[in-house]
Amino acid sequence: MKRVRSVMKLFILFVATLALTACEPLTVFDPQGPVARNLSDLIIFSIIFMAVIVVTVYILFGIIVWKYREREDNKDYEPPYEEGSKALEVTWFIIPVIIVIALTIPTVITISDVEDIPEGYEDQEPLVIHVTSADWKWIFSYPEQDIETVNYINIPANRPIHFKMTSAGTMQSFWIPSLGGQKYTMANMQTQLYLVADREGEYIGRNTNFNGEGYAHMDFEVVAESPSKFNEWVDEVKNTANELTEEKYAEILQPTVIGRETYNGTHLQWIDHAHGGSEKYIDPEAYEGHLIENKKADDDSVTDSESNEKE
What we know:
The protein is of the alpha+beta class.
């Protein structure tokens, strides 16, 4: 009787789980862009492939248990001593290798595809958005538009978005499930991610790497809209938002939970984004000239030293 009750409880739990998950489709299985669609197809393929393996194993397990069970006519059976079967050993070694290869090939192909501009959008110039993660917020910089937002981004639909990501503190994970897979943000380096929203809508992004007490508040909104509406939003920001200053940016970086904010200007004008906001921005041309001047000064110093030695 106890066993029947346990089975009934498990069945009720299973039905309740199905009912709850059926209310709304899982985000990763409802892709809104080509990158997310490729990853969703890979996940579905992997689930089906592994399900076939599991079902096959359980069927074979049931057959073997039933065939070689103890019966009245074999209770006293003693199997003969055998050295083993090399053919069987090779077989159960090769089968897992084939399984791993069958999962690896589509995974490598898909990962390679999502690391670049999605197919069909190669002729478009990507919109560049710099992403800086901090405790406990997301900072988005639009260098072309010269504006900056906190905890939300607006993007044009049907245009590739090139995210250049770093962290101003701990390592965190940038993920917009409806548009693509996650990628880490790390201090003193820059990671990149291409995404496309092929339809207008509102999506949720989040941090999937635990980073302290404000972790649960590191969600951000992504609004994909038509190019004309996106340009209208940019114009509105330029006409209404406050200017971003170094003091204000330093305040934003403090470990706090804040809401949505919008600014004119970006921190890229004084911060080297690829180094997690930890260094002043260096103009490449000026830096190259600085190296040339230093080399010239070193050469002059060596020449003067040689002249003094000769004297």
